[in-house]
Amino acid sequence: MSDTREVNGMSGMSSAGPAYGFYGDDFTGATDTLAHLARAGLRTMLFFAPPDAQRLSMLGRLDAVGIAGAARTMQPHAQHQELARVGAAFAALGVRVMHYKVCSTFDSAPQTGSIGVAIRTLREHCANSLVAVVGGQPSLRRYCVFGELFAAGGEDAHQQSVYRIDRHPTMSRHPVTPMNEADLRVHLQRQGLKNVQSVDWRCYARGDAALQTELDCLLESKPDAVLFDVLDDSHLQAIGGLIARHAAIRSPLLAVGASSVAQAYASALNDVVDRGEVSAVPAPLTRARGPVFVLAGSLSPLTEVQIAAAQSYLRVELDPQQMTGNAAPDYLAERVAAIVALLRDGRNVLAFTTRRMAHPTADAARSVMPQLANANAALLKAVLGKVRLQRIGIAGGDTSSIAVRALDAWGLSYLAPLSAGVTVCRLHAERSELDGMEVMLKGGQMGDADLFEQLLNGYAGDEAADS
């Protein structure tokens, strides 16, 4: 792969640093974006905090850098502080595209993980007047048409129906950020973006010139953001070319959306780069060389199916009330001891949150869920402090973000695909017992029914390759 790529005048790698910077509002989504960029042949590293010059110098040339965060759980003030630091860091690196990676279902609220707060904060560090919101990710069966979001849902990943997001069986009833509005323009307006324009899917068939003319007309009103419909991957190619052209004129350009933003960007590169130069075919994930530990904090119906299908694991239940109650330290110590004993005996272990918490009230979710995520993080840290493992898995967006941050590590690099939207990464840490450990992070809505078995036995099926 050459050191510099030109896309309609846009360098894939500037002389000062990486051309693409992304912030994941949770860790699971950040690893999915990492995977898409790595599979496109871009040398990419995902950090847990903005990297300093010494760290970047040690790693050598990077085409893209990511920062895995937890903004989707934050209230506006904390979110602004987090993203102001991130925006300044990306701008200092000289990125041309600054990607705020959100969940593919766009679940957010004015007071929790506000996409509006993110756009207003990051826009202060972006010179380009265009804020591009990419509305769908077809590889995950997320679609945006005439501004409205649709998403697949159900317990069987292969036989899911597609729902308008405000009728989705899970996301419409999310305990903290329920998606009760399908029109993403209205959804973003409720988060403080008064002028949200949109490009509907019919524009793409008219060609690049017509698409550019349509966008120029929309930009005359100085919109807070422009939402792009997405129904299939050809739409992402058109959007990627548009982003590339605008970023070449003035950068950074702020793009918002799921990993489809990275897909769009990579497709623009691949249009002009010889595919023979790109190492986009990942090596398959081989069988684990030792016991595997999975921590399932997700309460989604799909994760429940995945737990039931994990026949190669011994299960350890985690009671939410005892994990967060007055006697939590004693209960945590007892659960850790049980897990460590099984792992030392060579057994695979699946620790999971008791299902009676599967439908918490909104008040319970706001009070108990953060405490539970922190308790799960403490459990994982304690287990890894007592037994050395080659491979682990964490299920749940909030659980993944908080648990990985609790470890003494600084980054992740791409290792192999596992399933649609699920990636196995290599952990980078100063401590030798953690450095190189293989980590799967997955959101509640992601993965096949036998995902945890795949994590143990290795997997590189069509779903993973297409994700």
Automatic annotation (TrEMBL):
Membrane-spanning segments: none
Keyword list, A-Z: ATP-binding, Carbohydrate metabolism, Kinase, Nucleotide-binding, Transferase
Domain Four-carbon acid sugar kinase nucleotide binding: 294-452
Domain Four-carbon acid sugar kinase N-terminal: 21-264
Recorded superkingdom: Bacteria
The UniProt record lists the keyword Iron-sulfur: no
A GO molecular function held by the record: kinase activity
Recorded family membership: Belongs to the four-carbon acid sugar kinase family.
Record-given protein name: Four-carbon acid sugar kinase family protein
Origin species: Paraburkholderia agricolaris
